[in-house]
Design a protein that fits this description.
It is a single chain. The protein is of the alpha/beta class and 562 residues long. It has helices spanning 45-56, 125-132, 135-140, 177-199, 204-217, 230-241, 262-285, 287-290, 296-312, 324-334, 338-352, 367-370, 375-378, 386-391, 396-407, 417-430, 435-439, 476-485, 508-520, 534-545; strands at residues 63-64, 74-81, 91-99, 109-114, 141-146, 223-228, 246-252, 315-317, 320-322, 463-470, 489-498, 528-531.
Length: 562
């Protein structure tokens, strides 16, 4: 199969201006200020703020989160409006947590965090942040966690989806496309029927408003923040809506706001192509050890011959038949770590020849592993007690994912199923590993129109963007695009850095830059370029294989999430 090399990806224009549905305040916020001007255009700001006053006056009833957690790790629940345009209407829960500053006399404020998603629970993030932050930063902040609206303990949403509904990254096949359309329509219909009135308000913009309401409840003038992956988008939206209330923001492994969300999913395919080329070169240089070919072209042919063989007759991998589509999907993420991909293909080659192979090294090509597993599998590591797991709907991770991915920006999704067929065929040719998976039809094609326009991020808020060069979920150009949109930002780029999520990685260059900013509030004078070390990349590889998010009882990041 002939593969096309990916053309350079250009940063998005920074000239776009914000045209929000709701105006935002640029005045400095008092400690008890409410989220700025969230009333609809045809209602008075004074009336809306009056309605929000009852939320701001809440006093969280802090208590130990659970019997297995440290006594100093406290949880509470506050109420937030389901619809900020009608704050006097239905209310939903926002589950929050905290670990107080270790040195009150040195305390600077609050540090919120988000692990990614959409649909990732953040209630237990303070435990992980405490493990990773230097002592100076722990003294500066109360560490605040929260489950985003609709997630975990924050009034979790459900669409009543079954396991068969959860495989959403589907390869294009002419003979199955009509079934894929029916699946996508069915998921959207189930969500609308079960929770449509709620789901339309489970959006990033509203979660950002919840963050600002939490800031006000806590009596803080500003908030600081560390967000990973999807959490970078949430953080950037907050800076756009509440620029004067954003303090020290670290955005690690960044989403390009202009591509939320169909374009970001498609970037999984686009970004894999240069990583594939890098992998073929790496494996060819080590042909004596791995025997996959002594030139990049030969390594390329080895892989595609295996795909063709598996398409004709699935290859048994750990007792499971593995198709060519499974191999393509598995390689999409694996190639960002050349050694991991190479070892996997070596074992796949053995399995294809009917020889014993290492199931561990073949994990990337297992049917469930190829697309990161179902949402239920990923959510199996959910933090907290068994009782919490039973309280959260089994499809909560996926229901909240679709709420955001479809509801943030419905304009990004065509309503014509045939357009997805055309895109999938074209993109499989352009990006053979994953193009059809990324571009084929999704439930968003049948989702209701977004409640408000998508956020156009274009501001001068100070922030620190941190990015690996070889990130499989949010490729380097995505981080560069956010850096261009946030003109007050500085960027830390880890050349040769592998994996999704940078801080902390044991690399003094990156870790010290982030820690210094959080401790002092001073951004680097210019962008910083760090070089990955063998140890930092090895740590990233181990973290990607862990059952939990590093330092936290949260689910691992899956290849089908941000």
């Amino acid at each position: 199969m002939r593969r096309r090399r990916l053309a350079p990806l250009l940063a998005v224009s920074v000239t776009a201006t914000l045209a929000p549905a709701f105006a935002t305040s640029t005045a400095a916020a008092a400690p008890t200020a409410t989220p700025a001007n969230v009333s609809p255009a045809n209602a008075s700001s004074a009336a809306a703020k009056g309605s929000l006053d009852r939320y701001v006056k809440q006093k969280p009833r802090w208590k130990r989160c659970d019997a297995g957690s440290p006594a100093e790790f406290q949880c509470a629940t506050i109420k937030v409006p389901l619809d900020y345009r009608a704050p006097g209407g239905k209310r939903i829960d926002m589950a929050i947590s905290r670990i107080k500053s270790t040195a009150p006399d040195k305390r600077h404020g609050v540090l919120l965090s988000n692990p990614g998603g959409p649909g990732g629970e953040g209630l237990y993030m303070p435990l992980g942040m405490r493990e990773k932050l230097p002592k100076s930063a722990q003294q500066k902040y109360d560490l605040i966690g929260f489950d985003p609206r609709g997630v975990g303990k924050s009034s979790p949403v459900s669409c009543g989806l079954k396991p068969e509904d959860e495989n959403w990254l589907r390869p294009y096949k002419k003979e199955t496309f009509d079934k894929d359309v029916a699946w996508a329509r069915g998921v959207a219909d189930k969500c609308k029927k079960k929770a449509g009135d709620t789901l339309r308000h489970i959006t990033t913009r509203n979660t950002a408003r919840d963050m600002d309401l939490l800031r006000a409840v806590l009596g803080e003038k500003k908030l600081s923040y560390v967000g990973y992956s999807y959490g970078t988008y949430l953080g950037s939206v907050y800076t756009q809506l509440f620029p004067r209330r954003a303090d020290r923001f670290v955005l690690d492994s960044a989403v390009d706001p202009a591509r939320a969300w169909r374009g970001m999913i498609q970037w999984w395919a686009e970004g894999a192509e240069p990583a594939f080329d890098r992998w073929t070169e790496w494996a060819a240089e080590r042909s004596q050890k791995y025997d996959l070919g002594d030139t990049p072209k030969k390594v390329d042919r080895t892989l595609w011959d295996l795909v063709a063989q598996a398409d004709e007759k699935p290859i048994e991998v750990d007792g499971v038949p593995t198709t060519g589509d499974d191999i393509r999907s598995g390689m999409r993420a694996a190639v960002f770590t050349p050694q991991y991909a190479t070892e996997g293909v070596v074992e796949l080659k053995k399995a294809a020849a009917g020889k014993p192979a290492s199931a561990k090294k073949l994990a990337a090509f297992a049917r469930s592993g190829g697309s990161g597993g179902t949402a239920s599998e990923v959510a199996g590591g959910t933090a907290g007690t068994a009782a919490h797991a039973s309280e959260t709907p089994s499809d909560n991770t996926l229901a909240s994912l679709w709420s955001v991915v479809c509801g943030d920006n419905s304009a990004a999704w065509s309503r014509d199923p045939e357009s997805y067929r055309r895109d999938a065929i074209e993109d499989k040719g352009r990006y053979p590993l994953f193009g059809d998976f990324a571009s084929s039809i999704k439930p968003c094609a049948f989702w209701d129109k977004s409640a408000e326009p998508a956020t156009k991020v274009n501001n001068s808020v100070g922030s620190l963007i941190v990015q690996n060069e070889w990130d499989p979920q949010t490729p380097l150009p995505s981080g560069q695009a956010l850096h261009a949109d946030m003109k007050g930002s500085k960027m830390v780029t880890v050349l040769g850095g592998e994996g999704h999520g940078v801080y902390p990685n044991g690399n003094a260059c990156t870790d010290d830059t982030v820690a210094s900013y959080l401790s002092t509030g001073e951004l680097p004078a210019k962008d910083v370029t760090c070089k990955a070390t063998a140890d930092s990349n090895e740590k990233a590889r181990k973290d990607q294989k862990r059952d939990v998010l590093p330092g936290s009882p949260l689910p691992k990041r899956a290849p089908d999430r941000f």
